[in-house]
Amino acid sequence: DVMMASSSCRAHVPRWMPLLFLFAPHVSAYTAPGLLSSLVQQKKREVERLRIMPEAREDGPWGLCLGYPATCAHYSLSRSIGWRRERMAVVADLKVYSSGRKLGEQDRVFDNMVVTETLDMVADLGAIGALVSTDKMSYGGSPLDLADACRHTSMMRNAMGADFPIVAKDFIIDPLQIARAVCLGAHAVLLIAAAAPDQLPELLDTCTLLGVEALVEVHTTEEIELAAECGASLFLVTERDRELGVLVPGQACAVAP
């Protein structure tokens, strides 16, 4: 409460009275640019549907995940990258298609992808981990793909004798999406800085709370600075222009320090 002296006093004894100040709720001025704006709006509608699912209740798995801090943390992505400094560490991006220049437009990448078979293939080619999408519209993925991938990598770990981290890929704008990814077994999640810069501190805190790593996608120096200020430690520098929905060769090298 804010306390202020009253102008009317008796016997010069100040009388104090509480004042209640009402402020309008804060509304972010940020709007995702270009194509990304449509993708974010679509994802907001999807998140609202997630909120009414039984898993999102306080006693549901996602709600319980958000309500109680993890007792341990996964650092398998950092370890897998850090232990291979003598050569490039490759994290495969598994997806049926990429988003095109318009909402609902896709560029096909992989026909009839079976996520477990594809994981075996990229591991044989030397990948140390993989991004697996839960987004149907833009990447052709699903939560089932993520769950299958995480179960399969548990068996791969026994065979390989090393971790094969799975990064949940989506347009993540809400902690509930991170909770779902964790419940499906993800070791890390992809956070696209341009999609939710105002929510980035909260999303990074949620990753810490739930014991998973955050891989933050950036494509400009401004996004790198923002993510670093918010506490990000792992960066994915993309050559995709999220505003236009096109690849820009050389973009990643252009923002390198």
How would you spell out the order of helices and strands? EEHHHEEEHEHHEHEHEHEEEH
Span between termini: 47 Å
Question: How many distinct helices?
Answer: 10
Q: What is the β-strand count?
A: 12
Can you give the mean pLDDT? 83
**What class do helices, strands and sheet pairing give?**
alpha/beta
Largest sheet: 6 strands, parallel
Strand content is 15-25%
The stretches of 5 or more residues where confidence is low (pLDDT under 50) are 1-29
Radius of gyration: 22 Å
Helix fraction, binned, reads 25-40%
Strand order, largest beta sheet: 3-6-7-8-9-10
Q: What overall geometry do the principal axes of the alpha carbons give? A: globular
